[in-house]
Amino acid sequence: MLVRDIMTTNVVTVSSETTIMDARKIMEAHNFERLPVVDKSMLVGIVTKTLLQRAALPAVTTLNLWDISYLLARITVRKVMKTSLVTVTPDMTAEAAATIAQRHHVGATPVVEDGKVVGILTANDYFYKILNPLLGINESGKRIIVYEAGTPDTICEVMQIVKKERVAVKTEYTAGKPEANIKDLYVHLDTEDVSKLTAIKEQLTKLGLRVDIQEHI
């Protein structure tokens, strides 16, 4: 999966001449934590709530309310924005983009093509567009957990039984503790038929496998 498949494309930006007061209002209106700064269609920086708060703090501690409002209405984003940017490209894989974000400890990465912002990639994009579909969150069906079944041979055995019961599979993945040698198998089945679920569990149990059916996904 590529960055362009999951990025948010309707990106709200500000110019470097935007006042920090206006930038803060835009963030609050959209419930954003950060805004790309764009001049003449080119990305020049990024401003965050934290940077805006830091910029306002000296004024808050030394000036009266009138002076604070006057000052904040005149300080521009250019004075506080971060210019050392971590960006990704739309044709990069989502995994590579996540690695870059984690390596630099950033919560969002502007997506840039030829110097222009074409999207932004945030933690929410990973959750809603990758993790939620993978885990089947808010979808119908039931998930079974087959413990210590994350090997190719065992996965094939599990799938043969699921196929025998004529149940479709929505998603399947393996996961476990980092130190575990064998991972557990998670299978999201496209059914809530108790008789089919019971039949699958019974057959897997006969193979010596430990199985749980999750009631809530």
Overview of this protein structure:
It is elongated, with a radius of gyration of 25 Å. The chain has eight helices and eight strands. β1 (34-39) and β2 (42-48) form a beta hairpin. It has 217 residues and is an alpha+beta fold. It has helices at 3-6, 20-30, 49-62, 65-72, 94-103, 123-135, 152-164, 194-206; strands at 34-39, 42-48, 108-113, 116-122, 142-146, 169-175, 184-189, 211-214. The mean pLDDT is 89. The longest helix has 14 residues, at 49-62. The strands form three sheets. The chain has a four-stranded antiparallel beta sheet, sandwiched between helices. Strands 1-2 form a two-stranded antiparallel ribbon. The protein starts with a helix and ends with a strand.
What's the short version?
The protein has eight helices and eight strands. The protein has helices at 3-6, 20-30, 49-62, 65-72, 94-103, 123-135, 152-164, 194-206, and strands spanning 34-39, 42-48, 108-113, 116-122, 142-146, 169-175, 184-189, 211-214.
Strands, helices and their partners?
Blueprint: H1 3-6, H2 20-30, E1 34-39, E2 42-48, H3 49-62, H4 65-72, H5 94-103, E3 108-113, E4 116-122, H6 123-135, E5 142-146, H7 152-164, E6 169-175, E7 184-189, H8 194-206, E8 211-214
Antiparallel strand pairs: 1-2, 3-4, 5-7, 5-8, 6-7
